[in-house]
Write a structure and sequence with these properties.
2 copies of one chain form a homodimer.
Chain A: E1 2-9, H1 15-30, E2 35-43, E3 49-56, H2 59-66, H3 70-79, E4 88-97
Antiparallel strand pairs in A: 1-3, 1-4, 2-3
Helix pairs in contact in A: 1-3
Chain lengths: ~100, ~100
């Protein structure tokens, strides 16, 4: 399992609309191959900054199965209009948890 | 509950020693006021980059109770020698999870 971490700066004033769009996108992820879980975090220090922590079975499930699907286009159609800049996306392995 | 997100660049070659230091630090967190959970993530794209996702009951539990304690000095003594640069630390609230 891997975690996709996406840091997203939202246009100031669009935070509530962005959060509503995330709620609408829930069914998209639930039907994706290899999708496991989704968390939306909002920065306390910079309230227009959000982070998505999305877990996938494999890196390919995110980068190929999702990114090259119509579901990705639908997802970006919902949330993209609120982005102030392109998201910074990275993937991680969990080394330890306690 | 809040999440502390710390992005840490480790001196290349020190990754295994850093991970061992994290394992040694486990008892420190377990005795901290308001500490809830700890995750160590390692970047797939940049293998010398790690992220700590640490949850605390309140922001003050991290910034005051922990940061101003001898436990923080002990923690930094264990992991600090492996840092390539000062960590970037931010706090978040979880907006949604599914």
């Amino acid at each position: 399992m891997i975690t996709e971490i996406a840091q997203i700066e939202i246009k100031p004033g669009s935070e509530k609309d962005f959060e509503a769009a995330i709620a609408m996108a829930q069914p998209i992820f639930k039907r994706c191959k290899g999708w496991k879980s989704f968390e939306l975090h909002r920065s306390i220090e910079k309230p227009s900054r959000y982070r998505l922590h999305i877990t996938w079975e494999t890196l390919e499930n995110h980068m190929v199965d999702f990114r090259e699907s119509a579901d990705f286009t639908e997802w970006r159609g919902l949330v993209g209009p609120h982005f102030a800049s392109p998201p910074e996306v990275e993937h991680t392995n969990t080394v330890t948890r306690f």
